[in-house]
Amino acid sequence: MKIGEFAARSGISARLLRYYEEQQLLLPRRGENGYRQYSADMLRSAAQIRALLDAGMPTTIIRDILPCLSATEDIYLQKLSPETRLRLEQERDRISARIVCLARNRDAIDAYLSSVPLT
Questions:
Q1: Which residues pair with 36 in a beta bridge?
Q2: C or N terminus of the chain, fewer CB within 10 Å?
């Protein structure tokens, strides 16, 4: 299917699909006319890429782990290089630190709201 149909079926804009290709995350084949040709199988990959990006995962890590994802979106770490595993661990730690910061901010807002009378 061409990019317009794929965008409609995946819910991902054609602009983002081109970005995915630029980042080597999703590689449609090209027809003789140069048009991108997406297979139905790529819908699942596109959804995985979108979910990982929405989670804040950098494209460089996504590119490394995409081949390791199973149908259930589990990551098989035994297939990852030691460098990729380290980068994933660092990304996890960055996300954990962000969660702590967000929880602190939420708690500060809650404390402020509970101390300010309603008008």
A1: 30
A2: C
Give the sign of the dihedral formed by CA 21, CA 27, CA 31, CA 36: negative
- Please answer whether residues 17 and 7 qualify as being in contact, where contact means their C-beta atoms are separated by less than 8 angstroms: yes
Quickly state the pLDDT bin for 78 (edges 50, 70, 90). low
Give me the residue spans of the domains in the chain.
3-115
AA letter at 70: S
Are the C-beta atoms of 18 and 38 separated by less than 8 Å? no
Tokens 């939420």: give the residue.
Answer: 106
Residues whose CB falls within 8 Å of the CB of residue 91, separated by 6 or more in sequence, listed in order:
57, 58, 61
* Contact call for residues 41 and 5 (beta carbons, < 8 A): no
pLDDT of residue 74: 61
pLDDT in tens, 20-52: 999 999 999 999 999 999 999 899 999 999 999
- Region 53-73: mean pLDDT is 81
Task: Report whether CATH 3.10.310.10 matches the domain 3-115.
Answer: no
5, containing H or E segment: helix 3-10
